[in-house]
Amino acid sequence: QVQVVESGGGLVQAGGSLRLSCAVSGRTLTNYVMGWHRQGPGKEREFLAAITWSEGRSYVADSVRGRFTVSRDNTQKTVYLQMYMLKPEDTAVYYCAVKLRGDANYHSWGQGTQVTVSS
Length: 119
Prior knowledge:
Number of strands: 10
Strand content: over 45%
Helix content: under 10%
Structural class: mainly beta
Shape: globular
């Protein structure tokens, strides 16, 4: 069983930066993909980025590409979401989740971390 805990959220002014962390615990992660998602007020959950645990191959959604990057530290068992040039519309609860390669759906969701961007 894989468990994740997000951290790093907070209040930031528009144009600022923030780095979120996702600490991963549990079984061997070789065949896993780590994903970042968010859910803003009154909005559906949105996929942001993903990274394979073993090779570190990453993908960032078009909506945030150029402003967000995803990375991982295998030794720390932590996945990061670095966010630049934040906008008020980035305000949301940000979630980390895990899935096996080839699976359609993520599981083992964290509790989320709130990011608020003030204008």
